[in-house]
User: Which sequence fits this backbone?
């Protein structure tokens, strides 16, 4: 991979470009990182920046999200390494457990699919969606799709946002008939089902 | 549409929290039930339509990674401040217990396909059943 392709994708470039850290701060962090390296400690620059108080939690998230989005857009090999199914299984679990009717769950699935198109990697948009959902439909379960979306996009991993949420929508819709069973389905059942599904997926891989 | 039970919401919120790589503001998330209950009890008269958007706004004010469990905890209809307090305490205790139990599962050499999220979900399912009496308080 040519070196130019990596320019702008490195944490050191991003923190300055996003305006979170100035050149002097970056130099200071790089020096600390170098000293740690000489002592045999392989510290990540982003951790050093945060420990020095040059980067707060939110800024760190934004840097990571930005880097991951750029990795995807640059189509760099290895940039699409986040295939963990936990995120979308949990994203599906939220509306399935929160909404009581099959139609409601299907509606949540549709909102997730539309949301995937609307947010396009912007996690704060899911926050706005949560607010709008609760405003538009009195009764807080309306916020369930937004909570599910936040689950799928949080932790700075919107790398495969659309895929994640579309899978979540499909799984949510698939779970809807479970509500029709003549037994009381509680979150406990969903948790066990989610655990089994994840273990099975790993085994298959 | 039937609102979710407080007890159920606590465990869904805990599940969301436990699959997060970087957890933050657990204290803030635990405050959300109290805010939702306080808003429901507020003498807003004809302006009760403001409750849902205000609670959603407060729930999503923390950093994005805490928005999901906060929104889930904002969902139930809290009948009293006592119920909200109990939900907040149950949420924190559940996350703490699940964390500890999950560590033990890892230490005792769980099969690779069950490590991480599957083990956490199972631990939460067990806790859901074990703590059911608390849900009736």
Assistant:
């Amino acid at each position: 991979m040519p070196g130019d392709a990596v320019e702008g994708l490195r944490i050191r470039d991003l923190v300055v470009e996003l305006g979170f850290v100035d050149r002097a701060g970056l130099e200071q962090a790089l020096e600390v990182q170098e000293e740690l390296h000489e002592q045999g400690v392989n510290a990540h620059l982003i951790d050093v920046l945060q420990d020095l108080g040059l980067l707060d939690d939110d800024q760190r998230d934004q840097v990571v999200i930005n880097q991951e989005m750029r990795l995807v857009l640059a189509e760099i090999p290895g940039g699409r390494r986040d295939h963990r199914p936990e995120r979308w299984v949990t994203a599906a679990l939220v509306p399935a457990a929160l909404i009581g009717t099959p139609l409601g769950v299907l509606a949540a699935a549709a909102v997730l699919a539309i949301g995937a198109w609307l947010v396009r990697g912007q996690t704060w948009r899911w926050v706005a969606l949560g607010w709008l959902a609760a405003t538009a439909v009195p009764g807080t379960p309306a916020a369930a799709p937004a909570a599910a979306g936040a689950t799928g996009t949080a932790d700075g991993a919107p790398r495969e946002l659309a895929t994640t949420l579309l899978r979540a929508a499909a799984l949510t819709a698939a779970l809807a008939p479970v509500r029709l069973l003549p037994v009381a389905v509680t979150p406990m059942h969903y948790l066990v089902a989610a655990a089994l599904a994840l273990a099975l997926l790993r085994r298959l891989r | 549409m039937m609102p979710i039970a407080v007890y159920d919401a606590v465990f869904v919120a805990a599940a969301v929290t436990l699959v997060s790589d970087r957890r933050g503001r657990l204290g803030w998330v635990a405050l959300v039930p109290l805010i939702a209950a306080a808003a429901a009890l507020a003498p807003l008269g004809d302006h009760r339509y403001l409750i849902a958007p205000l609670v959603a706004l407060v729930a999503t004010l923390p950093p994005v990674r805490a928005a999901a469990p906060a929104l889930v905890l904002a969902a139930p209809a809290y009948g009293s401040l006592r119920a909200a307090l109990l939900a907040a305490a149950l949420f924190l205790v559940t996350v703490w217990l699940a964390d500890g139990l999950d560590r033990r599962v890892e230490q005792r050499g769980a099969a690779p396909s069950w490590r991480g999220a599957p083990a956490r979900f199972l631990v939460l399912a067990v806790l859901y059943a074990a703590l059911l009496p608390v849900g009736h308080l």
